[in-house]
Amino acid sequence: MKFKKLMAETASVVLSASLLTGCSSKKEESADKLSVGIVLGEGSINDQSFNQSTWEGLKKAEKDFGIHVKYLESKQESDYIQNIETLVDEDMDLIIGVGYQLKDSIKDAAGSYPDQKFALMDETYDKIPENVVPVTFKEQEAAYLAGVIAANMTKTKNVGFIGGLPAPGVVKYQYGFKYGVESANKDVKISEQYANSFSDQAKGKSIAKQMYAGNVDLILSAAGDAGTGAIEAAKENNKLAIGADRDQSDLAPENVITSAIKKLNVASYDLAKELVEGKYKGGVEKVYGLKEGAVGMADNSGKHIPENVMKIVEKESEKVKNGEIKVPKNEAEYKQLTK
What we know:
2 domains; Rossmann fold; alpha/beta
């Protein structure tokens, strides 16, 4: 009996040790799992545009690499730094600020937490902090092609542009589109207006309705959730629209003839991949354009756009890629190229 009791006690000790070891292993496994958190500026994670595209890239990385991903939405400017600090406290390996509105907050946080890895989507710095990777896009190149399409598709010779806020990325869309339209057909008039918001769908819709009522028959909107409102107006008024940032044809399949996309999902996925592979390199800007295959027109463009127009777009795309055509990214460059 004493022998059986001794064996039982020994087994109990071994089992307890095993369970403790198992718990320890799980904790270590959890601790070793890399994590990426993003902080949004204005707009929701499901904005059918900028934020959503960034998140989709990270969700793919989560699936491919087994990392942990998380997002925090911001309701007001004071939320930016608070959300960043929340992710720092949660020991995120990489924190990404999404949009130009996070520029100052990411820079401040980078100074306060020099050992923390950061990235900033769609904006850069004159002097890049050593622990920040700015990611920018040549949106103007995709917008230029959209302008060529618009000039060839409009029947009224009146097209429109709606921007959210005058962020550098949106301004690139504006002047790239304008330059593309005028390069293809100088007789086409362009109406331009900003919603002064990335989240006000009603404002975007109202602006679009006014443009459509004024003989505009096609609008490119680069405005986040406000742009979603503009696409709703196109659907309700049986007009044409061009989406931005991601393929927005799902919002109005018969009205959105194409989208001038920038693949934020590719950039966010690349950032996660580099983190996993130990190749994160702060202090260096990453730039994506037509040549890199990260901006361009939606794959389903041929559904609504005639073959002859698509051939024109393909030729113009090659000219942009090889440097034969330089596309302006702001008003100053536009004036220089058109004087």
